[in-house]
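Researcher: Good morning. I'm working through a list of sequences from a screen, and I'd like to move beyond sequence-only analysis. For each chain I'm collecting a predicted structure so we can compare shapes side by side. This is the next one on the list. No need for commentary yet; just the structure.
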Amino acid sequence: MPRRLYTCTPSRLNAWLDCPRRYRMTYLDRPAPPKGPPWAHNSVGASVHNALANWWKLPLEERTPQAAGTLLLRGWLTDGFKDGEQSARWRARAREMVERYVAGIDPADEPVGVERTVATRTSRIAVSGRIDRLDERDGELVVVDYKTGRHVLTPDDARGSLALAIYAVASSKVLRKPCHRVELHHLPSGEVASWEHTEESLGRHVARAEQIADEASAADEAYKASRVPRPRAGETPVVDHSPWDELFPPRPSNLCSWCDFARHCPEGQQAAPRKDPWASLDAAEADSPQP
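Model: Good morning. Structure tokens for this chain:
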């Protein structure tokens, strides 16, 4: 029989790499264990991404920096902030981010895609993902990914990103044009971290994705075949990791502070204390206090 393809996204593959236990709770446990409260930095990121996506939907003559700021204000998400004052402070910072960023863009230079879903397959995986922006420059496609975190990124971040490499391969497949350049646009600093892949380096990323998929797929199949009782729909799940630790071991690290499922993971709680939902924003403000 033909081998069944492993259907995935870059996020799913990276979840397996980061922590198989978190992967299991995210993608396999049904009903899934309750998550912790929403993160304020995710609200900032989503608000900025939505404003930039909607800016390209405006008529050409309306694509101004001020319009981008207005879109940010209208679509501002408030989940996870410490209080209204912090939300308002970050709304102003985010507005300044998108207005400054858009001021450096030619509004007539239409992207090939905005929030564009692309997909490709190999003999082992069927992978898809959504790209923030896909440009065409000099006859080649360019993958653009927006970033709003506190850390300035480097070309090594772009070079090593499994997601960006997969987006490049999938974009080329879907649109039948070469795609080798990937870019991380860091809005807080205005810096762009880019990398020019070769066919060989893209192939290495695909091979890596297949290797990760092989490991995750084997664990998925064993999980599905297990007779371990699971909660019924409507029941509050009691999280018991013991039947699964061999297949889905925890991978404790400092990242456990930011895990949505930290409350269900004793090893993660021991590895790193849970952060407040707004902790990342407090750290960013400490790095660059506003006047």
